[in-house]
Amino acid sequence: MSSQSGRGRDDSPAEDNAAHLDDLIGKIYHDLRQIAHLHRRGAYGNLTLQTTALVHEAYLRMAGTDSELSLQDRQHLKALTSRIIRHIIVDYARRAGAAKRDAANAPHERIEDSLIEPMLDVGVLDLDVALHRLSGRSPRLEKIVECRFFGGMNVQETADALGLSPRTVERDWRKAKAYLLRFLQEDKSKMNA
Amino acid sequence: MLSHKHFEYIDELFDQAIEQDETAQERFIDSLAGENPELAHELRELIAQFRSSDTFLSLSAWHSRDRLLAAALDLEDGVMAVATDRSNQVLGSFRLDREIARGYRAVVYKARRIDTEWEQVAAIKVLQRGVDSDDVLRRFLAERQILTLLDHPHIATLMDGGRTEDGLPYFVMEYIEGRPVTDYCAERNLPLKTRLELCRQICSAVAFAHRHLVVHRDLKPSNILVTDAGQVKLLDFGIAKLLGSDVDPAIAAQTVDVVRPMTPRYASPEQVAGEAITSATDVYQLGLLFTEILTGVSNARDALGLSGGPDRHQAPPRTPSRAMLQVDGASPFRPRELRGDLDWILLKALEPRPEDRYASAAELDADLENYLSSRAVNARQATAPYLLRKFARRRPVLSAALGLSLAGGLVFILVLAHFNRQLEAERQSALDAAARAAEVRDLLVGFIRSPDPWSGSGADARVSDILQHSEATIETQLEGRPELQVVLYGALADVYQNLAAHERSVALREKTLALHRTLGTANSFASLQAQRKRAQSQMVVGETRTAVATLERLLARIAQAFPDQLREAALIDIEIGRYHNTYGRAQDALPHGRRAVETLETEVEDPSLLAQATTVYGNSLGLLGQVEEAYNAYARAHEINHKNRGEQDVATLISRARIAANLSNQGRYAESIAIYDEILPPLESRLGPLHEEVLAVMNNVAYSHSLAGNRENAIWLHRGVLERRREKFGDTHRQVADSLQNIGSQLVHTGRYDQAIAPLEEAGRIYALVNAPGHSRTAYPHVSLAIAYAGIGADALQEQHARKALTLLQGQVSDDHPALLRARCLLGDSLVRNGEREQGISLLERAVDGLTGKVGISGEHLEACREALTQARQS
């Protein structure tokens, strides 16, 4: 697992115990894969994969089976899952980018386009960089983006997971997006210049 | 500016600003500007982003996220999961040859048909996991009739669909060898005129699909190939819709579990926003595509500086001619040539709001034609379209005109909307509007028309919803405008008629005819046409007497008042001929058929209608026993259809079926069966296994087999028909009873009397339920049952069924009807055995007399009766 999304700077209580956290991340990662596999094999009667449902399912598994989880852990579980999903996607986009560069030899390899906002020409990696910049200024805004976007959680779920009021989440989500758009704009104009 | 150092301060100001209303914000920022202009600027930027951030990281980004996560979790130990190579697998009637294309949603193979003699190559698209297979297949089956009959020279035919053994949907399509249109243009360095001609070919195909209520939604260069001969072929028509969420966009926004079919680079603003998709969506995609074709830019969206999103804040785009200046490399023509009209046309197609664009590809095509023939283009006459104004103003998004925000892009709605705008503006006189309405009608008349009127329940639920709304719209929105209502009700009635919803169609014709009376145009040609169409529908719903009386009257009226309307007269002749043929009055039918053929051979050019007339004429000849003359007529009809529509067209296949039936009547069973065997697979693949034409052909093959003495084949085929009819109609339907009767009668013929009884009794029960009292066919199972009981030796039951059959037949059929005669002989036979010898022999003699000299099936009856008579005399 890469640590480039700045986990060290995170100030959530669940991360005080680093060893325990690594363990937890491993479990969530494993669960996500397993659920995805089940979906793929049609065990759920549906071949599509929906992030929101995936996060929820992973949460239910963890919260339901792991008796060692503290109440605090439980509350943060979904936020953590959202962060892991961000890792998985960013990691994938990086690898897909590398594969694409070598694509001349393997034209049939299935490579996903890692654009996440095609209209704005924003890729996952761009978003990740912008999110890093945001986290340096406000870790809370970063977490809200992780929950809302990467974890597919709604306002109430995000508020529960982060211990904030829905009103704050609502406002901060829009603020975070405004900042991200500014960062992306700046990056772009720098690139063009 | 947003450095760590200033962040907290800006963030605080930002928080303050967003609590205020817009005016207060302005004042707040202005007050800051004096002391720190940079800070004020940053804050202004942030607030602008804050206001427009709604679409950022929402719908379309969620899809990308889901897709990426699915792909990421798909990795097995860091190795990319590659979709299975299915080369050499067999799917349905095809063997997959080799892979020809691969995308993230599907793999396409070149395939060969393996169950026929003739060489048939196809492209088979196998979808990848990630789509909901059941849903896709369900949609495909619902739309199959429209999609597989989308028959246009520039559209690659969709032939069939199914599911692989491991559950993935696949589609069988016409195989096309060609280059993507943009590559084709670049590689050959084509001049502007040739490029425009390619655009027009594309338009004609898309317009054709729009008339059939099919929106492509995924038009892009890789879906538009050009063959070496310079012919455009559009791929994947209708497939995007099968894959996409076609539900109410509001619901689609909540359930984001669909893999969106749209290709972002060519997506229209409404697709990005998840709003209703209409024919104008295709127009937008054509706008992007044509910009690339005509200017040579590789990404029209970027080159024109289009935001692409529903956000209308963006600066106006560059014109295509300016965009072309950026293209490297020599072009055979200069950007200047695009300036003016072509710029206008392309930008009109690219308007962000669907209602500002051309409503359909047909309108876009018309403007390209205007340009090519140096007429004024309509795009220029539009009033202040968004893209062409210097300063964009924010406007509320109208999700769909007239409040008809239904899913599915139906031209009808757009056309009505278009109308409505015209009416509101009152820019045109009522007469002009009526002329416009005539255009609309022409657009609509072609809807869903095919040589195959949909049977029964064919109407797609969605389409019928829209039609109902359209009807209400005509009623309310156009109240007090009878001259418009009459045309639009007529158009709607045409649509219903084409959908085989004849009762609805008749009701609407009544409305148009009432309006004609109000308008004083009851004797106009339009009114006569409406009456003819009403009669055609009445024929189908069983009001045949009224219908034929109307048709006879119309024929006289047209001859007198509209002697030049020869096509209309021919149409009526065909209809009357058909009617008389159906009731066995070939003598009456013959002159009508003959006259229609003559007119259409010499005066009016309409090959499809000529083929129909020739067929009706052939049917009459056949009924009159002129079997060889009938054969010639059918062969002619086939020749016309073959030439006009191609070998694999449904109409052509059906005309071959008539030839086969005729050969069977001539006793040339082997030839007949050979033809049937050849046409059945393509017919089934185009119409589906339950289509009535397919069932009719199966039934006829069975009949030919039974006449040829291959009774086992016949029974097997009849059982197949029975199964399909049960699936199609349920257990209690006349056609199910027909099949049961056929099976029972074949079993009787092969001496399996005990097996015959159950199907025959079921047939009898169903006929008694569904047939009108006195219907002769109700008697048939009783005739067969009497034969079966005779075979078993159950005299009492034989007598009972023979009597029942006689009661049902007497007075209903002519005295020399073979079934009546056979029933009489069965009764006579049973009476003799029950000791009433005199009476029995007399009945047998009458039956033998009646049957003597008849050919075909009657021969068998005669033989059986003679034998019974001989035995009776000996007893």
Q: Most extensive interface: pair and counts? A: A-B, 57 and 57 residues
Strand order across the largest sheet of chain A: 1-2
Helical content band of chain A: 55-70%
Largest sheet, spatial ordering of strands of chain B: 1-2-3-4-6-5
Give me the strand/helix succession of chain A: HHHEEHHHH
Explain what this protein looks like in three dimensions.
The complex is a heterodimer of chains A (193) and B (875). Chain A is mainly alpha-helical and 193 residues long. Helix content of chain A is 67%, strand content 3%. Chain A has a two-stranded antiparallel ribbon. In chain A, β1 and β2 form a beta hairpin. The longest helix of chain A has 31 residues, at 71-101. Chain A is globular, with a radius of gyration of 17 Å. The model of chain A is unreliable at 1-18, 43-47 and 103-111 (pLDDT under 50). Chain B has 875 residues and is mainly alpha-helical. In chain B, α23 packs antiparallel against α24 (586-602). Chains A and B meet through α1, α2, α3, β1 and α4 of A and α1, α3 and α4 of B. Chain B: Pfam families: Pkinase, TPR_12. Chain B: Keywords: ATP-binding, Kinase, Membrane, Nucleotide-binding, Transferase, Transmembrane, Transmembrane helix. Chain B: This is Serine/threonine-protein kinase. Chain B: Residues 94-372 form the Protein kinase domain. Chain B: The chain crosses the membrane at residues 397-419.
